[in-house]
Structure formats: structure tokens, C-alpha cells
Amino acid sequence: MRYRLTFVVGLAVGYVLGTRAGRERYEQLKKSARRVSQNPAVRNTAESAAQQGRQFADKAYHVVSDRVGDRMPDSVAQRVRSLRERSNGSGGDDWGTSNT
Predict the structure, then answer these.
(1) Is there a contact between 78 and 71 (Cβ–Cβ < 8 Å)?
(2) Residue 98, SS3?
């Protein structure tokens, strides 16, 4: 109940502050966010982070599968295989980043 009340209070405060800021401030924030997301340094950092995440996930899968062995559910193994095939075949992922 406490979390629900906190959420409702936060929603109300956000609404009041948002209506005071108005459409102009919203457009400024949107423009700034777009400029940051199109910055080459930000894009390269995001791609590097995604690549590192894929590498860590692959290592973690191998460690877990070595310890779990044949007890790994088929659904998990099939999902990992399909993700690996999809990322290896296309050169990109659903987010538009490359595997470079």
C-alpha cells in the first residue's frame, strides 16, 4: 500500500510540474534527447556496451551450462541457440546496433 501511495504522489507531482513547464519545455527536452542519441560518441558507447553485454552473456551461459549439464531445460537451450543464430547471421540486432 505504501508503494502505491508513493507512486500516486509521484504521478501527481510529475503531472503538476509537467503542466507548469508546458509544451515548450517538453519540445526542448525532446530535442536535447534526440541530439544526445544521435551523437556519434554516444552511439559508439552504446554499441560497445551492447557488444560487451553479449560477450558476458555468452560466457555466463557457458559457465552455467557446464555446471548444470543436461539438466538445462530444452526451452532455455533453444532460446539461446535462436538468439545466437539470429545475432551471428544478420550482423545486427533488434536495436540497430552492429556486432563489431
Answers:
(1) no
(2) strand
